[in-house]
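Renewal narrative, Specific Aim 1. Our central claim is that a sequence can be written position by position from structural information alone. The example that follows is taken directly from our test logs and has not been curated for this report. It begins with the structure tokens describing the chain, in the order in which they were read.
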């Protein structure tokens, strides 16, 4: 047995394995409805006690079923208000006076959430943190502020271009040295 050799060679608890052989249970699965009901009756008390113990342990934990824990809920911007306002009654739907958007393909009460608004990029996607990679533009300050806060600047022309050939003072002095 490899477990016995590992146990004797490296001491008790070697490699996280017990130093005794775990017997295999030779219990046949229930095949008939009477055997299934008998098994359920045998474990009924154990299930009840386990449920009571689990409910006592989970009393101090927050109730995640009632919390707003959707993935996009973590990124939602609370400053935006309600996502949409629904009509409660059919009469309100009939007497709705929402302004028609002529650029939209269909007349709808939810004009901020249709395909034409998304294609035109007419409604900004505001979140608490970045969700899309296209939101990274404008969230952080620029890496290099070439103006250093002083308005317009000609840093590129000053640093990258060689203007020594443009100057006339060097050309006249060179011509004067030749005796022209």
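The sequence written for that structure reads:
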């Amino acid at each position: 047995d490899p477990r016995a050799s590992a146990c004797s060679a490296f001491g008790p608890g070697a490699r996280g394995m017990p130093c005794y052989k775990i017997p295999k249970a030779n219990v046949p699965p229930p095949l008939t409805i009477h055997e299934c009901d008998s098994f359920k009756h045998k474990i009924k008390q154990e299930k009840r006690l386990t449920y009571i113990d689990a409910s006592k342990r989970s009393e101090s934990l927050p109730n995640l079923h009632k919390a707003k824990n959707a993935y996009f809920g973590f990124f939602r911007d609370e400053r935006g208000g309600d996502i949409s306002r629904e009509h409660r009654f059919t009469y309100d739907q009939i007497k709705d006076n929402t302004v028609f958007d002529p650029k939209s393909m269909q007349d709808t009460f939810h004009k901020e959430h249709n395909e034409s608004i998304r294609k035109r990029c007419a409604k900004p996607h505001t979140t608490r943190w970045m969700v899309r990679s296209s939101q990274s533009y404008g969230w952080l300050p620029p890496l290099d502020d070439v103006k250093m806060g002083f308005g317009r600047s000609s840093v590129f022309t000053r640093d990258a271009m060689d203007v020594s050939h443009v100057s006339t003072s060097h050309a006249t002095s060179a011509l004067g040295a030749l005796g022209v």
